[in-house]
């Protein structure tokens, strides 16, 4: 594939995790022409100093405030104007690229009809993270509420999460995938029109992938391209979980209208209510769904996933 790959990293107080990503880029991008852009969401730690020290050739864009993950990605894309751009690699600062991963992603992106490519993500111990997802539906939300996300994910009709280990051993396609590392064809990005900044954090990658599919661009999974992901706090941080929960319902309303969104809300609310005793995150998620409830706009560590 001709042209450069723009690497867009969105940071927010990411000093603790960013060095590992920057140190992995050279080997991870071997064989590809790249341009690194780091968009910082008004960090108050040493994030900017680390970029200047470890990646002096990177374009560092400091935003006046925390505009979230989608806002940072859009700002990064605008910074690539004038570049002979083939694709954009979206990266969380807590990603570590394994050697040769980017050229493998590019090879898959060259296939007809593919607009987004995602790698296999593993944790620090090498365990594969179940990152592939099916389109959100009322039945799947209800299945997850009753059975739990992983158990429901064993049944395509009942779960959004793809659980089958075999699915992560072979190339394939998915409706969407978690957005910690995602290669997007330039034509796909332009057709979709960028990322929806109203989500701030969570569901923006779902929205982007589904809008890409609406425009004829499929999402491909490449198991031979591997990246390590330290992981986010959505499952334990009450504010982040509340935001995630509310955004899931809002996305469904945007795509399916108020009637289906009401049924989807009921299934999500049931999920949170059944698990409210497990900890404050689910209680915060339930409160965010109730009339008058609010999901506080959080200031996450890395404005990522």
Q: Any chance you could write out the topology, listing elements then pairs?
A:
Layout (H helix, E strand, L loop, with lengths): L3 E8 L6 H11 L5 E7 L6 H8 L4 E4 L5 H12 L5 E7 L3 E3 L3 H9 L4 E9 L9 E2 L4 H10 L1 H5 L18 E3 L1 E2 L3 E5 H7 L11 H11 L3 E12 L8 H37 L5 H10 L16
Parallel strand pairs: 1-2, 1-4, 2-3, 6-11
Antiparallel strand pairs: 4-10, 5-11, 6-10, 7-9, 8-11
Helix pairs in contact: 1-2, 5-9, 9-10
Structural commentary:
The protein is globular, with a radius of gyration of 18 Å. By secondary structure, the chain is of the alpha/beta class. The model is unreliable at 295-305 (pLDDT under 50). The protein is built from ten helices and eleven strands. It has helices at 18-28, 47-54, 68-79, 101-109, 138-147, 149-153, 186-192, 204-214, 238-274, 280-289, and strands at 4-11, 34-40, 59-62, 85-91, 95-97, 114-122, 132-133, 172-174, 176-177, 181-185, 218-229. Strands 1, 2, 3, 4, 5, 6, 8, 10 and 11 form a nine-stranded mixed β-sheet that branches. The protein has a two-stranded antiparallel ribbon with strand order 7-9. It has two domains: 4-229, Alpha-Beta Complex (Spore Coat Polysaccharide Biosynthesis Protein SpsA, Chain A); 238-289, no CATH class.
Question: Between the first and last Cα atoms, what is the distance in angstroms?
Answer: 28 Å
What is the helix/strand order?
Answer: EHEHEHEEHEEHHEEEHHEHH
CATH topology of the largest domain: Spore Coat Polysaccharide Biosynthesis Protein SpsA, Chain A
Question: What is the total number of structural domains?
Answer: 2
């Amino acid at each position: 594939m001709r042209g450069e790959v723009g690497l867009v990293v969105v940071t927010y107080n990411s000093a603790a995790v960013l060095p590992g990503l920057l140190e992995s880029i050279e080997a991870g991008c071997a064989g590809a022409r790249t341009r690194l852009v780091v968009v910082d969401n008004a960090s108050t730690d040493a994030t900017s100093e680390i970029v200047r020290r470890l990646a002096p050739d990177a374009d560092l864009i400091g935003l006046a405030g925390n505009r979230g993950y989608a806002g940072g990605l859009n700002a990064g894309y605008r910074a690539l104007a004038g570049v002979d751009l083939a694709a954009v690699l979206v990266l969380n600062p807590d990603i570590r690229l394994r050697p040769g991963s980017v050229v493998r992603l590019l090879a898959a992106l060259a296939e007809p009809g593919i607009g987004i490519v995602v790698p296999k993500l593993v944790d620090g111990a090498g365990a594969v993270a179940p990152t592939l997802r099916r389109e959100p539906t009322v039945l799947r939300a209800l299945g997850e509420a009753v059975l739990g996300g992983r158990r429901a994910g064993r049944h395509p009709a009942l779960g959004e999460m793809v659980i089958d280990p075999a699915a992560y051993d072979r190339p394939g396609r998915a409706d969407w995938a978690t957005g910690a590392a995602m290669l997007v064809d330039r034509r796909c990005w332009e057709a979709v029109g960028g990322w929806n900044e109203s989500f701030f954090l969570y569901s923006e990658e779902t929205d982007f992938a589904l809008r890409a599919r609406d425009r004829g661009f499929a999402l491909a999974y490449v198991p031979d391209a591997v990246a390590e992901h330290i992981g986010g706090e959505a499952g334990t941080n009450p504010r982040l979980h509340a935001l995630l929960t509310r955004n899931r319902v809002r996305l469904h309303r945007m795509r399916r209208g108020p009637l289906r969104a009401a049924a989807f809300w009921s299934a999500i609310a049931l999920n949170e209510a059944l698990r409210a005793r497990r900890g404050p995150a689910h209680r915060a998620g339930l409160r965010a769904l109730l009339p008058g409830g609010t999901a506080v706009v959080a200031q996450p560590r890395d404005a990522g996933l």
